[in-house]
Amino acid sequence: MNLYAFILGRKHLLSTAEILHVLDPKDHIVDITHEALIVDLHETLKEPQESLNRLGGTIKIAKIFSELSLSQSDFASPISEHLIRLFSDRDTKLSYGLSMYNFSHGYDRQIKNALMKIKKSLKSEEIKSRFINKNFKNVKNAAIAGEKLMEDGMDLNIINGTHNTYIAETVALQDFKSYSHRDYNRPARDAKLGMLPPKLAQMMINLAGFTKLSDQSQNTSTLYDPFCGMGTVLTEALLLKFNVVGSDINGEVLEGANKNINWHIQEFSTINSSQLAQPLFAKDATSLESKDLPQIPDCIVTESYLGPPQKHLPDAKIMKKNFHHIQETLIRFFRNAHPLLNPNTSIVISFAAYRDKNRIHTMDQLPEQIRNLGYKIEPLIPKDIAARHNLKSEQSLVYDRPDQIVGRQIWKFIRT
C-alpha cells in the first residue's frame, strides 16, 4: 500500500474537492476527515514536493508508516522506532516536530507526553534530539521550513481517522513563500477589482479536471478565462502547463494582466511563452464569437464580476441590485458561450457571495437559470464519495475569510 495523508487547508471541503479531482482512477480514498484526506495511491509519489506545488488547498503531504486502532494511545513507540531506524548513525542533534490532526480540543497534553517519550527513547539509543513544538502546540509550516526539518530533521503527524489513527512523515510542505511572491510581488495589482488569491485560482483550475497529481508533463489542454482581470487564473494555469487564452472587457486591465504574465515567464523557468496561445484581447464576454478564439477551449476557469467593493455589508436593496446586475451579465455570457463550446466542456467559475454574522447570501436562482441554458451542474464533492464518507454532496463551495464581506461561491458546470 502507498498510504498518504493530505493535510487540508482552512477551507477543508474545497481542499478535499480539489484533491479528488486530481487523483488517478486507480487511487483509493481510504478516509476523509475535516483536517486530512487519507489516500492509497496506486504508485509512490516520485516527486511529492512537485505534486504539492500543484495543489492550492493542501498544507502538507505525509507518507503514512504506521496505523493504530482508535483504542490505542501509544503514539510514541512507532514514532521512536521510525526515528531510531533512520537516524541511529547520526552524530549531530536531530530536530523534529509533531502535530496532531482531527483530535478533540486540548490535545496539548497528548503531544507533550508523546514528545517526552520519544526524546527518552532516542536518548536511550544515544541519539541527541530536540523537538521544535512551542508550548506543545502543532508546528506551523513556517517553523518547519525555518528549522529545515524537511532537509535535516523530520516533521511527524498523528491523524485521527474514522476507524484508525495514522502516523505519517511529512514528505512535502506547502511553499508559502512562492504563493506570497506570486501574489504580492507581481507588478500589477488592483484591490478594487477583487484580487483572486493564487491558491484559489490554482484550486479552481484543478477542479476543471485536466490536471493529475503525479503527472508533471506538459499539459496539452487549452484553458480560457473570459473575465481575466489581472490574469491570476492565466498565470497559475501557465505554471500548471496549460495553454491559455484570456480576454476582458476592460482594455486597461489587460495591460496589467500582460505585465503579470511577462513577469511570471521571467520568474519561473517552467513556463514557456508559447503556452500563451494568442495575445490577450479586449472583448465583452457576453458577445464572444468563435473567430475571437484560436481554438475551442477544453475548459473555462474564471472569476466573474463580484460587484463594487464593500466596506460594510450592503442592505437588502443594494444587495439585490448588485446580484441582479451580476446575474444578467452571467446569463448572457452562458447563453452566448453555449454554441461556441464542445459538449462536456467544463466551466469552473466563482460568483459573488455576501457574508454577514449569521449566513452567506448567494444568488440562489442563478445556477438553475444556467442549467436551463444547456449546462449541467457538476457537484464539487461527487455523490458516491460523499455517501461513502458521510459527507454532504456539495454542488458548490464558498471561499471566504471570517472578516470578509464579499466572498466567492465556486461552481462547476458542464456544457451539455
What does this structure look like?
The chain has about 425 residues and is of the alpha/beta class. It folds into 2 domains: about 5-175, VC0802-like; about 175-415, Rossmann fold, CATH 3.40.50. It has 13 helices and 17 strands. The strands form 2 sheets. Strands 9, 10, 11, 12, 13, 14, 15, 16 and 17 form a 9-stranded mixed β-sheet that branches. An 8-stranded mixed β-sheet has the order 2-3-1-4-8-7-5-6. Helix 1 (about 10-20) packs across helix 8 (about 200-205), helix 3 runs parallel beside helix 4 and helix 8 (about 200-205) packs across helix 9. The longest helix is centred in the last third of the chain and has 22 residues, at about 315-335. The model has no long low-confidence stretch (mean pLDDT about 95).
Give the helices and strands, then pairings:
Elements: E1 3-8, H1 12-22, E2 28-32, E3 36-40, H2 48-52, E4 58-69, H3 76-87, E5 94-101, H4 108-124, E6 129-131, H5 141-146, H6 149-152, E7 153-160, E8 164-173, H7 176-184, H8 198-207, E9 222-225, H9 232-239, E10 243-248, H10 251-267, E11 281-282, E12 299-303, H11 316-337, E13 346-355, E14 360-361, H12 366-371, E15 375-377, H13 383-388, E16 396-399, E17 406-415
Helix pairs in contact: 1-8, 3-4, 8-9
CATH topology of the largest domain: Rossmann fold
CATH C-level class of the largest domain is: Alpha Beta
The backbone outline, from C-alpha atoms, is: elongated
Overall domain count: 2
Number of strands: 17
- Describe the biggest sheet? 9 strands, mixed
Proper CATH architecture of the largest domain = 3-Layer(aba) Sandwich
Structural class: alpha/beta
- Rg, Å, rounded: 23 Å
Mean pLDDT: 94
Helix run count:
13
Detail the poorly predicted runs. none
Residue fraction in strands: 15-25%
Helix content, binned percent: 25-40%
Encode the helix/strand succession as letters. Answer: EHEEHEHEHEHHEEHHEHEHEEHEEHEHEE
CATH superfamily of the largest domain: Vaccinia Virus protein VP39
Separation of the first and last Cα atoms: 38 Å
